[in-house]
Design a protein that fits this description.
heterodimer, A: alpha+beta, seven-stranded antiparallel sheet, two-stranded antiparallel ribbon, 5 helices, B: alpha/beta, Rossmann fold, five-stranded parallel sheet
Chain lengths: 205, 125
């Protein structure tokens, strides 16, 4: 694990906060799908945004298409959450939510958008709650792209670090999995480190 | 309260989470003896050796998860007092661990108020 500027305790704390956040997200998605979700241990790393293309390529199949949802959030810990769902997972989601064997593209997009909104707001909302800070969410935007176009975006150049959350949202009877990346700037990473240190200090006091 | 030799096993793969539990317990039981495990397999071994009065158990852990560890611990001691502290807040997760013999399930993160409620309502010390 590459833990740029983060020490072992800070990564452990970030992993634990993310675990709590994912627990809430899983619960909300389970409600949406009316199915039990199995939680997996998230793998957390903090990497340079310049590595994003490589990082993304490790979590997707080169030959497949993906729904990519991006949601900006602003505040003391600000950035952009990228949620990547394979076409097959998105179809499964649309099929389940719209109770049809052949959901159309708009329905699938709408279903993925709803899933994204729930997951990113749960993750970022819970994470920032744990850190005692507020963030404002902006409307998510979606695209349907080939795997190699996922990280090929000039907008990502404005970010310096990416918090990679490798986990799986696995739901009984529904083959739905997704990847989550949180893009941040240096000042947000520094704020995050300060907030984590404050939390750790509180525990040792 | 103030019991002597109250052995408590805290099981979580996160050091921060273990510290949070230990700190919350210490506020109620300053003299408690703590044993820590970072996965279910280590927890089961410590449980066999130390037979702690209380186990605080996470669910999502490497090597052996909390569900499996709970089953093993209940086989060793059907009267074991296991409190699951987990980020998994789904009703089905709760149902599953309660059926396996846990005393209760508490959502993460733990705090003094939740710990006090556990000591008052769930544990026999």
């Amino acid at each position: 694990m590459n833990s740029i500027n983060f020490n072992e305790d800070q990564i452990d704390a970030l992993k634990e906060f993310m675990n709590i956040s994912l627990g809430e997200a899983t619960s909300h998605v389970a409600e949406l799908l009316d199915a039990f979700g199995t939680m997996h241990i998230p793998k957390i790393s903090v990497r340079d945004t310049s590595e994003l293309k490589e990082i993304v390529s490790e979590s997707v199949e080169a030959s497949l298409n993906y729904y990519v949802m991006k949601q900006l959030f602003a505040g003391k810990f600000g950035g952009e959450c990228i949620f990547i769902v394979s076409e097959q997972s998105a179809n499964n989601l649309g099929t389940h939510l719209y109770e049809t064997d052949n959901p159309d593209k708009d329905d699938i997009n709408d279903a993925v958008m709803e899933l994204t909104n729930i997951v990113t707001s749960s993750i970022i909302g819970r994470l920032t709650e744990e850190l005692d800070v507020q963030v404002q969410f902006f409307a998510p935007v979606s695209s349907f792209v080939k795997s190699f176009d996922i990280a090929d975006d000039d907008e990502m150049a404005q970010y310096s670090k990416v918090i990679v959350v490798s986990t799986e949202l696995e739901f009984k009877d529904h083959n739905i999995s997704a990847s989550i990346f949180i893009l941040t700037k240096d000042e947000a990473i520094n704020s995050l480190k300060e907030l984590i240190d404050k939390k750790i200090e509180e525990l040792y006091s | 309260m103030g019991f002597v030799n109250l052995k408590i096993l805290v099981v979580d793969d996160s050091k921060l989470a273990r510290l949070s539990v230990i700190k919350a317990v210490k506020n109620l039981e300053p003299s408690a003896d703590f044993f820590e495990a970072e996965n279910g397999a280590i927890a089961v071994e410590i449980f066999k050796k130390e037979m702690p009065r209380v186990v605080f158990l996470d669910l999502t852990m490497p090597v052996m998860n909390g569900y499996e560890a709970l089953v093993e611990i209940m086989k060793i001691d059907p009267d074991a007092q296991v409190i699951v502290i987990s980020a998994d807040i789904q009703p089905e997760a709760r149902e599953r661990i309660m059926l396996s013999g846990a005393k209760n399930m508490c959502p993460k993160p733990i705090n003094d108020e939740k710990m006090q409620s556990i000591f008052i309502n769930d544990l026999i010390i």
